[in-house]
Design goal:
It is a single chain. By secondary structure, the chain is α/β, with parallel strands linked by helices. Helix content is 34%, strand content 29%. It is elongated. The relative contact order is 0.20.
Amino acid sequence: MTDIADLIDPLIAFRRDIHAHPELGFCEHRTAGRIAEQLRALGLEVHEGIGRTGVVGVLRNGASGRSIGLRADMDALPIEEQTNLPWASKTPGTFHGCGHDGHVAMLLGAAQQLTRSRNFDGTVNFFFQPAEEGQGGAREMVLEGLFERFPCDRVFGLHNWPDLPAGTIATRPGPIMGAADKFEIVLEGRGGHAAIPQDTPDAILAAASLVTQMNAIIARRIAPTASAVLSITQIHGGHTHNVIPAEVRIGGTVRTFDPAVQDKIEASIREIAAGVALANGLSATVDYQRYYPATINDAEAAQEALDAAATVGIAQLAPDPAFTSEDFAFMLQACKGAYIWLGQAKPDGGAPLHNPHYDFNDDVLGLGIRLHVALVERHLG
């Protein structure tokens, strides 16, 4: 592979500029504009406004009809940054706390390298995706005909992974990230004086019972051989010490890999909520939303990724999937491909993803570029 050392310093500057000007999902107008400008400067065919703010760059070489897609997500998080770095966010309450600024820089670097090396025969589609953080930007792009307009034999998504040391690249066949569901349960009664509890159904007491029973769903209703997580993360009810509230809200998340397990957990939540409400003289409503499916890698594509990774870094078969979620799952439902973890941990550790002290490790920019290029050259060689 041609040396890429000359690309790194400008890409670091670009990455830090994006970091300093973060934008939330479907609002990535400045980011998308800068990306489109860079792609046009390389002579690529550029398409904007896909999935609202998404950008696609197309690079063709040779006569082959084969094609590949490479994805980078662009959006930031609604978190207040606490790094105190010179390139820290200039937008209050918005922060690149998941490294999407680094993903953009690596994919642009791959576009630059592939444009000048052209050691492939076919079409490379560079997908810059909006709104990965809980808003389904990948789904929007797919629904707008992403793979009909830009057909791909394979699609790959690369994400930095602070749990792995820098230089390590990991993936696995089958599930690699969990399905993400969220729920809110509302228990409603009449409310009344706390000194006369016999006259008022107690939504607080019912909520306590509901939380206890829900925390037994995984242990007692799901087979020990299955994998699932149910976390209750919110309880809201009451406003003063001497009133039994009329309403209590309980919220949380469920993570699974198997749709049958997902179905069982949702049904159990609804059943338990109805039972607790009946036993306590209350009504219960359950709002259960499945917003991201599990990220399932195609076995052949995962092996292709590991083979490419072995040529540029330390390739590692990931032993277990993660329960965090990723809307790249929607792309994998529409096209065979694989999701890949790029290790970025420094020797001193560093902050995890979605932490206010996190910053992307610029030392792995080169490895990410080389991996993207290796994927293209292996598939379109």
